[in-house]
Amino acid sequence: MKKTWTIGTRGSALALKQAETVVLLLQTFYPDHEFRTRTIKTTGDSVWDRPVHLIGGKGLFVREIEAELLAGTIDFAVHSMKDMPTEIDEGLVIGAILKREDPRDAFISSKYDRLADMSEGDRLGTNSLRRKSQVLNFNNRITVIPLRGNVDTRIRKMVSNNLSGIILAWAGVKRMGFEAHVKEILPLDLMVPPSGQGAIGIETRNESALLEMLQAINHRQSFQEVEIERSLQARIGGGCNVPLGINASISNSSLTLRAVFGREDGEILVRHTQVGTLDAAEEMIMDAFRQIRPYTGAEN
């Protein structure tokens, strides 16, 4: 009999598609094993009438799944890394990250070709404090309206709620096949994404056999980029409760680290970009942290 492994995932269309990608990769490397998915409803999937930062932050999308991992009822869990808290149970670990999709944000509109074209009275939908802060800093003539939901839901709500545009993660839009709706992929000097955006991570128990299996599908560069971003995020704290963007980009042995920290009203307090060698990653992380720390109350 084939050895069977169970992969836990949220039940959204995007989450299921990402889990399917992981299953196909694992089956390619382990054809003598069987991989099945199990859908787990999280708290974040149950509350849609309030912003995430007001109901508990990123952990809302992973707690129930992690409980299943710890209980041994599932072997692996597939996550969008942007939804992962930086602190996870000591018995669990991020074992692999797939090759990362473009981490930038995308502007979708039925009215405008560019975010810069929006004017006084236009309404933009996003539930992210990070996006709200950077958008208002770029264009303070518009009004930002809270908007939650899956990719397709938010695109529909753009029309039904009479919004001039919305901002979504390009990776999710692409994975769901809605690229044709995108008018502009926002450059990093305008909109710095959150740590982990564009990356699919696989969480598992801290057991050698499970971790060894995942090495076959781990993309080293993507893993390093997300690890750097999450290291800076962990020092700053706040998760999705603060207007914070972090992006690490590796090219050969060169590292570009970007961070932006602002206020909800559009005031940007720190906009940091540093280029160095990958060997200097820790020093670059600390340099960015030292610039942001005075505005956060973080101590470490």
Q: What pattern of helices and strands is seen along the backbone?
A: EHEHEEEEHEHEHEEHHEEEH
Range of strand content:
25-35%
Per the principal axes of the C-alpha atoms, what is the gross shape? globular
- Tell me about the biggest sheet? 5 strands, mixed
**CATH C-level of the largest domain:** Alpha Beta
Radius of gyration: 19 Å
How many distinct folded domains? Answer: 3
Number of strands: 13
Question: Pairing-aware structural class of the strands and helices?
Answer: alpha/beta
The number of helical elements comes to 8
Helix content: 25-40%
Question: In the CATH scheme, what's the topology name of the largest domain?
Answer: D-Maltodextrin-Binding Protein, domain 2
Instruction: Give the averaged pLDDT, no decimals.
Output: 92
Side-by-side strand order of the widest sheet: 2-1-3-10-4
Span of the ends, CA to CA: 51 Å
By CATH, the architecture of the largest domain is named 3-Layer(aba) Sandwich
The CATH superfamily label of the largest domain reads Periplasmic binding protein-like II
Low-confidence stretches: none
Would you kindly provide a written description of the structure presented here, covering whatever features stand out?
This protein is 29% helix and 26% strand. With 300 residues, the chain is of the alpha/beta class. The chain has 3 domains: 1-98 and 199-218, Periplasmic binding protein-like II (D-Maltodextrin-Binding Protein, domain 2, 3-Layer(aba) Sandwich), CATH 3.40.190.10; 105-185, Periplasmic binding protein-like II (D-Maltodextrin-Binding Protein, domain 2, 3-Layer(aba) Sandwich), CATH 3.40.190; 219-300, 2-Layer Sandwich (Double Stranded RNA Binding Domain), CATH 3.30.160.40. It has a 5-stranded mixed beta sheet with strand order 2-1-3-10-4, sandwiched between helices. A 5-stranded mixed beta sheet has the order 7-6-8-5-9, with helices on both faces. Strands 11-12-13 form a 3-stranded antiparallel beta sheet. Helix 3 (129-138) links the parallel strand 6 (123-125) and strand 7 (143-145).
